[in-house]
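Researcher: Good morning. I'm working through a list of sequences from a screen, and I'd like to move beyond sequence-only analysis. For each chain I'm collecting a predicted structure so we can compare shapes side by side. This is the next one on the list. No need for commentary yet; just the structure.
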Amino acid sequence: MSITEDAPDPPWLRLGGRALALAIVAGAAYSVYRVNVDAFDYPRTDDAVVRANVIGIAPEVGGRVLALHVQDNQEVAAGALLFEIDPAPYEAERAVAAAELDAARATAGAADDPAGAARVRAAEARLRRAELNLGYTQVRAPLHARVANMNIAAGAFAREGQPLFSLIDLDRWWVVANFQESYIDRIKPGDAAAVRLVAYPDAVFAGRVQDIGWGIAVEDGAPGAPPKVAPITNWVRIANRLPVRIALPPPAPGQPYRMGLTATVTVNRAN
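Model: Good morning. Structure tokens for this chain:
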């Protein structure tokens, strides 16, 4: 039994294989080129979240919570009554101040009391303060918002200046998108931005670049310091990221914005 050697590939087959390999390499190189060109022409990031103004609601005066007029997650109009502090102590304070004012006015004209006019002004000031405090027992919404993080019930004691819950502004929404610093010179305020939210995968929201952050904290700092954006690194050093604020249009029906929703942002410098 003899062993036969494999016949060599014909020249056309070898040439065809080399041509295919070159085509694959060229195609891969072109794909990398296009990805890089598109990345600079249309900067994109998926490191983005939806944000809104959030304010803590704290009473100007302390006291027992007499009534709560809202519940957690409720939408409220600007000026809506949120809760009431027991007004009884402040009504008494106003009554005392009013009586002091009456007494000061009654003696203000006496010849043996030259300081009477000054006592009248002081009593008037105390009465105004007492009326202010009484008015502060009714706490109202300063803006159109949604109640968040409510964990209090009627009967609880509220302390002056201590927030009881938060309000999320429903009229102004934006996305904070962290872009690599290598793209920053390609992004300008006023540029159009396509915003996609994980919550609504089939929708595209027409955003607009509002401004670009002027710095980030390079290490943990004190409150009020620039925002800290942790770099994503492995064994290769990569560019830092800067926050870019993208203004959002009013929410579409059935697609409300929510604080913290994950977003993907693509900036279109041509529009």
